[in-house]
Amino acid sequence: MTSSEQAAASSPAFHSQYRVVIVGAGLVGLLLAIILRRADYHVVVIDKDGELKEIGAGIILPANACRALAQANVLDKVKSCAVAPNAWVSHSYQQGGILARMELDPYIQDQYNVPFLVIHRPDLRRILFEEAKARGACIHLATTADVHRTDFSDGLIHATVTDDVEMVARNPDDGRKERTLQADLVIAADGQQSEARAFLAGHSNQPLPTGKMVNRILIGIDRMRELGLEDLIDPPCIHVWLGPGSMAVGYLLKDVFNFVLVCSSECEPEVYLGPREVEKEELRAVFQDWDPRIRSLVENGHGYLKWLLLENGDTALSSWIHAAEGDKLKLALTGDAAHAIGPYIGSGAALGFESATVLGTLLEQARQQSDIAPMLSVYESLRRPRTDLVKRVTQKMGQEWMLPAGPLQADRDRTFVEEVPPSQGYPNALQDPFFQTWLYSFDGEQEAREAWRLHREDSVDCA
Questions:
Q1: Beta bridge partners of 252
Q2: Are 57 and 222 a contacting pair, CB within 8 Å?
Q3: 182-225: per-residue pLDDT in tens?
Q4: How far apart are CA 93 and CA 35, in angstroms?
Q5: What was the pLDDT predicted at 443?
Q6: Angle in degrees, CA 157, 163, 166, rounded to 5
Q7: pTM of whole model > 0.70?
């Protein structure tokens, strides 16, 4: 029996009566539901969408993400639908020459005892959704929580339930009904535009453009072979092209090549949320001087979508938690609602999974309800420094990888090629041996148990 299973077996009786409402049935919210059900908490997950859907196609699961999935006992199911890429290959943008290669499979497995995977987002969400339901979580789609109307003194959450999503889209006054949910703890895992985050900030959470946008193209495997692009899928690798003001990332999923292009959003006439269709002509203009393989991918794909990279307008949010003394209901943010980052080093989902593991493991250790509030404080103090650092490194890599053509780009490319083996400060932070070890070795269960042990010791010393 694992340590987590032992903890669950000895869960206090109050766990089954303690009502946790998770807002957001995305990847992080569902993983947290799985962990909390292991500890026998009463878990309800609500999501505003009427059906499971995902923006994009692929998602990168580095070692720290896979460790979190393993600790939740879902990694084997994930592996059955995933691909283990051999390497992370960085290319120059014009001719596509290889600048650097970071070994992934089997190196990551040997080094960190878990794999490095890529997977269809819908497949991963389906696995987590089915597992959460199988473990007893109640999941309600088409349900929106109104945190601003929530009564924290008595634990009543006001929610809107949509019976007919299509009808409401046509007429917002139809098909909706009000209900209340009784809860002891609300955990907001509802993404970057979280209403709970806006509540904690004290003002609306207006998204701010970063100046970049993401374009996604899918290319079938047979079509890749017809185009003579077998080198991009056999063996499977994560291919990254670094260009002026833009970059491209491509990797093989189970049955399709997932191709993502990041470029300037200055031509977009407005700030918008969610995906929109993108025309080939828009991409041709940006990538016309790039590696011929990229131009071929742009011309021969399907499923062309674009969406803006946004950031929260309240970057100085003072706290992720609301646990006022005397209030019955407590609130915490997790995942992108707490610490959204850019896509450049493939760590957004991994950070969310880490946070779910830390928060869930802390709550597993609660022996009475009075433990919950200090556990939320420990959670935030443990997660904020790490997520802030990863966000800064991600932003730096985005800048480094999209340098304008000129001396700085030439110096970067020269460092890629000549600095072997990589050392601290390498142009790809994931190949920096110090940063990679720090990032990929993280064990959320271990960190949470140790942090709670130290908190209890400090509490005794201060008594």
A1: 257
A2: no
A3: 999 999 999 988 999 999 988 777 778 899 999 999 999 999 99
A4: 43
A5: 98
A6: 120
A7: yes
What b/e string do you get for 76-86 counting C-beta neighbours within 10 Å, with b at 16 or more? ebbbebbbbbb
**Distance (Å, whole) CA 449 – CA 455:** 10
Half-sphere exposure in the Cβ direction for 150 (13 Å, CA): 26
Within 278-371, residue ranges assigned H as helices are 280-287, 292-299, 336-339, 348-364
Query: What pLDDT is attached to residue 167?
Result: 37
Phi and psi (nearest 5°) for 108? -65, -45
Number of H helices, E strands in the chain: 18, 19
Name the amino acid, one letter, at 45.
V
Amino acid identity of 114? V
- Give ∠ CA 147-148-149 in degrees, rounded to 5: 90
For 37-55, the pLDDT digits (tens) are: 999 999 999 999 888 776 6
Q: What's the half-sphere exposure (Cβ side, CA atoms, 13 Å) at 147? A: 28
Contact 112, 442 (CB under 8 A): no
**H helical segments located in 144-193:** 165-170
Q: Which amino acid is at 260?
A: V
Q: Note the Cα 296 to chain centre separation in Å.
A: 30
Only one residue has tokens 């299509």, namely: 166
Mean pLDDT of the chain: 91
Helix (H) or strand (E) holding 437: helix 433-440
Quick: pLDDT tens for 147-177: 888 889 888 888 888 754 443 344 455 556 7
Tokens representing 256 are: 């399709």
72-131 per-position pLDDT tens digit: 999 999 999 999 999 999 999 999 999 999 999 999 999 999 999 999 999 999 999 999
DSSP codes joined into one string, 384-416? HHHHHHHHHHHHHHHHHHTPPTTHHHHHHHHHH
